[in-house]
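USER: I would love a firmer grasp of how sequence relates to backbone shape in proteins. This is the protein in question:
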Amino acid sequence: MVYLRTIDPSIEQDMRYASAHNFTGHRLDGYDAAECLLSVDTAKALARVQAALRTQGYGLKVFDCYRPSRAVADMGRFATEPGDPRKAEFYPRVDKQDFWRLGYVARVSGHSKGSTVDLTLIGPDALPADTWTPTATQIDCTAPYDQRWHDGALDMGTGFDCFDERAHTVNPTINATAKDNRQRLSSAMEKEGFAGYSKEWWHFTFSGEGAPKDVMDFPITPMSASDTIGSSGQLIVVTSKNWDDLQGTAQRYERDGKIFRKYGDAFPVVVGKNGMGWGKGVSSLGDVEGPIKREGDGKAPAGVFKLGTAFGFDASVDTHLPYLALTPTTECVDDSQSSHYNKLVDGAATATDWSSSEHMRNEEGYRQGIFIEHNTPATAGSGSCIFFHIWRGPASPTAGCTAMDQGDIAALLKWLDPRESPLLVQMPEAQYEQFREEWALP
């Protein structure tokens, strides 16, 4: 079993069962990280599909891969318990007690063998992906393409996990565009040994040599730092002289085979007013020496971090990252006791359970920014609302973010490509040297 990112980081991932945006309305047991794991032969076959599609201007986005059997049991429990929190979106015309009879949920899933994958097709005609929150309006998954949830994929006739006859692979009622897209996806998958499933256009099982036979139940955990860096095509390396330094230097790198090469010139940044402390990033760093990042400590997080949503005051910016246009009611919640801790929310549309937050439009430095995924998913008290953003000046540290000149952040926004799995590596120089060889850092 391998992480798909280590085989082909260009395949996009939207791992629905690691979040609440799925038919159950909760994260499933065993999904401790939003990562696609597959058998090595399945992953390599999927990479060949991706390579073939890219020559045609298309690509893949996966929704689910290996599924621990404990997650299958979790689905089963949901179908027998009261409550339908996501019915209006995923199964508006189906009773959940009928999931098995209708073939939408299996008691023993091929996903648990590591050779089955749920995915869709992306391409230039796709509507941009929306950023999901629990308060997002539920739209019937069979609604017209421009009305239902925008998952960043082409029109496939329905959304993912749509328990409805229109999701059946050869359903005659979908429009011609969706039929063509389903056929393009099915054809590409079949050429590399994947077989589809008649009830779900997104569901494919690899049947080639090396397909595993046994059901597994180990949880999906975050990639190690070395694995994560090894699957990244873009790095932003920020270093400071020591833990207490308020200023640092940032350098961009792009992958060239097994090594990274500098991209552009280094540029100055400022970090937290109290320097840095080890943060909660892509994986545990083990027993390391140095300060630990906490809520309100004025330290920027040190470690390896994924990058999330770009945001700003303008309606749109020149970036490939998902973008959130800030409104007067956009807040970032820094109250550790809130269910929305360390999240950007629309305060006007969200039931308030917090006593402290940042009103994003009140801070001029947030005119352009990028969410750094420190403490994601959030652990109470470990720190929140950490961004790249515009500085007040080269001698003005932050409350814990990493800030820079407006021209430098505009260049970052334009350069970053989510298909390259970009990462921030941020720490003092001595700690960077400590991990450089082990993690194959530049």
Summary: The chain has two domains: 2-206, 225-439. The radius of gyration is 22 Å.
